Amino acid sequence: MALPFLPGNSPNERLGKERFHKSQHFNYSSGVPMLVGSEKPGIGGEHLVGQEIKPKYSVYPIGSGTGLPPWVTFDKQVLCFDAYFQETVPEAQSETYRIRKCKIYFFLEDDTIQVVEPEYKNSGIPQGTLIRRHRIPLPPPNEGQFYNLFHFNINQQMKLHSRTFTVTDCDSFTRNFLTKLGVHVNNPTTVPEDPYSSLREQLKKSMQPLRPYERHDTLKQFLDHDRKVLRFYCFWDDSQSIYVDLRELILHYFLVDDTIEIREVIPPNSGRDKVNKFLRRCRLPKHVPAKVKQPGEITDRTVLNVLTSSTMGNRYILDSLKTGAVHEEFYKDCDLIIGGEVNVWGRRVILADCDDFTKHYYRAKYGIEDFTPLQYKAPPAPKPPRPVPPYNGFGSEEDSLSFCQHLLPKPPRKDFQKFMAKDRYGLDSKVLNFQAKMITADPVDRERVFIISFYLSNDTISVFERPQKNSGVLGGKFLERGRVKKPGQELFKSQLSQYFTAQDLYVGATLCLNSINFQLLDADEYTFKYMEQHAEEFPRANMGIIISKLRSLPEEKQCEIRKFLTLSDPSNTGFIPFESIRSLLLGLDCNLSEHEVLVLGRCFSEREQTQVDVGLMLAVAQDFLKKKAFEEFPKMARAFADHDRHNFSSGWHLLFRFADGDEIDYYAFLAGINWLEHPAPPVMPEDTLKVRKSRNYKANKPKLIAQSLLNYSAVLKNLQGKPSKRPKMATAPF
Prior knowledge:
Blueprint: E1 26-29, E2 32-35, H1 70-73, E3 78-88, E4 97-107, E5 112-117, E6 128-134, E7 156-160, E8 163-170, H2 172-180, H3 195-206, H4 219-225, E9 229-238, E10 245-254, E11 259-264, E12 279-282, E13 303-309, E14 313-318, E15 341-344, E16 347-354, H5 356-365, H6 397-405, H7 416-422, E17 431-438, H8 443-446, E18 449-455, E19 460-465, E20 476-482, E21 510-513, E22 516-523, H9 525-533, H10 543-551, H11 555-568, E23 575-577, H12 578-587, H13 594-603, H14 614-627, H15 633-642, H16 646-649, E24 659-660, E25 663-664, H17 666-673, H18 685-696, E26 709-711, H19 712-719
Antiparallel strand pairs: 1-2, 3-4, 3-8, 4-5, 5-6, 7-8, 9-10, 9-16, 10-11, 11-12, 13-14, 15-16, 17-18, 17-22, 18-19, 19-20, 21-22, 23-26, 24-25
Helix pairs in contact: 11-12, 12-13
C-alpha cells in the first residue's frame, strides 16, 4: 500500500547528496575546446531519466583475465579479416560494377577499425587506406554504440560508413582468438570474380611484345655485396723489358658487379710517372682475343636481316636462338687465389697476398685456410740511424730534442693520462711525504729536519725545511718543485737523463738532490697507506715480495730468527716488541730495507681496543633521538624481534656493548636509548664531540708501530707456507 502524497510522507531525494551543481558540458583538454561530461548531464553529475550509458570498449566480463588494462594486455594484437565490397561503375562500356578486395583490421587494445585496400598496378583508382583507424559506430538504429569483436565473423556483411563489406576469410591468429572466446567462426567463402579484372588479365597474356628484352636481375647481388671489395697485393713480372724489375700492384675485385680495378704502387724516387690507374674498373676477360672487338659487336641480343629492299627498306627479327652471340669468360672471385696468375690483357700478374677482409670472405665462402703470402721482394733495408747531437745546456733536454726531430719545433708532450689519474682529487692529495735528514759531517746540518714531497702527477720533488727554535738556520722552502735528475749522469750527452721516480723513495733510502745527500727516516700515514694499497707499483710495500725474501734466507738464518723469537717470548704469548724483531732483521742482513720492515710491522702489529663510556654513548644517543622527536620504540622492538641481529649489529658500534657472546640483549639496548621511559642526564657539546670522534676514528685505534707488539706467530706461519688470517694494515686517523 502506497503512502499518500502528503507533506512528511514523501521521501526526500536530496538526503545524503552533497553535489547540486549544474553539469558542465564544455571544457579545455590539452588546450583544445571540446565537449566533455555528456554522459552525466543532470544536476550534480547524475544521469537523466531514461538515459542509457554507451559502452566505451568491448564487452568483457568484469574480473575475467588479468588485471592489466586492455591497452597493455592487447598491445600490438590485431585481428585481420579478408573482405570485399561491390562498387557500381556508371557510364562505362566495358564494365558495370567492380569487385574491390580489402583488408579489415580490428585493434584489440582500443576497438578501433582500419580498412586498407591493396594497391594494384595501373588500376586507375585511388587505393590504400579506405577508412582510417578509429571507432566506427553501428548502423541505425544503434548509432549510439560501436563495433566490437563480437560483431565480426566470416561469411557475413558489415556496414561501415554506408559501405557494405562482405567478410570472406581471416588469418589463423584471428580464428584461434575468436574460438577461445566462444565465437563459432563460419567457413570461409570465395570472392566473386571481377569481370573487368579478368578481361585485363586476358589482354595482358595475349600481348606479345615485338622486342622481348631479357631482364637480368642484379638487385640481390647489389644488396648483398654493396661496398664490399676484395683486395689483393700482387706484382707484374716485367722481366722481358729492358728494365728488369717488379711492378707492385693492388687488385680490387668489386663483389657488387664482378669488376676488377688495378692500381700501381710507385715507390718514391723510382723515376716513373704516377698514373691514376693501371687498369680501369671493368670486367676482365680470361682469354685475350686476337682482335679487339669494336664497340657494338658484343651485345646481349642479336638480330637477323630478313629482307633488304631499296623500296621497302630493311626488315629485321630478333635472334631467339642466339646464333650470333659471343660467349666470353671473365674472372670471378673463385679464380683469384694467392699464388695464382691473372692475365691482364697479356700481362702476367701474380697474386702475392690479401687483406683480412678478403681472408675472412674466402674462409667463409670456400673454406680456404691457407693464406701464406709469397715473398717476391727482398726485405726492406734497415733505416740508417739518426744520431742525436749531445745536449748543449740551453733549455731542457726534451725541448732541445724536439728541435732536432722536427723542422718546426713542437713543445714536449706531457703524460696527460697520468696527470688525470694521479692529480689531486678532493682530500686525496696524491703526494708522498717523507721525513729526511742531511748526510753531512757538519753537526749543525745533521740536526736539520726536512720534508721531501713527491708529486705523483708529474714526478716532481720539492723539499721543505722545518723551522727549529734556536738552531741558527732559517726554515722554509729548500728546493723548488721540479724534476730532479739522478746523480752520476753525464751532463752533455745524446740520451735523455734519468729522473727520480716514486719507486726510488722509501724509508731508509738515500737521495742525492743537487749534490746534497738526504736519508729518508720516516713517512706520514697517507704515504704508507698509499704505497700499501698500490703494492703492484711499490715493491718495497708489497707483502708478497717481503715474505718471499724472508723465505729465501738460508736455513741457518731462519733457525736463528726462530730461536730469537722463542727466547724473546718466554711466556709463549705469540707477541714480542716490534723494536726487537726490527733490530734482528736489520742486523742479520736479510736484504730488507727499513721501509719493508715497517710494512711487516704494520701488517702483523697488535691492535688496542678503544674503551668508550657506555653511559656517555647512551646519553648522546638519547639526546640525538630527542632532538629528532623519535618515539617509535615499540615498532623498533618488533623489528628487532622479527629480524636477525646481524642486520643491525654491522652498522652500530654501540650494539657491541650489549653483546653477550653471540647474542645481543636488544631489550637492554632499547631501554638504554628510550628517552621517554628512561631519560638520561643532559649532555654537554664536548661530550657529543668526544663520542663522534671515537666513532669516526674507528674502534681499533692503533698504537705507534715502534711501541706496538708484533704477532710473530702469524709471521712464522707465513714463512712456513701456511697462510694465516693476516690482520689488516695498521692505520691511524687523519
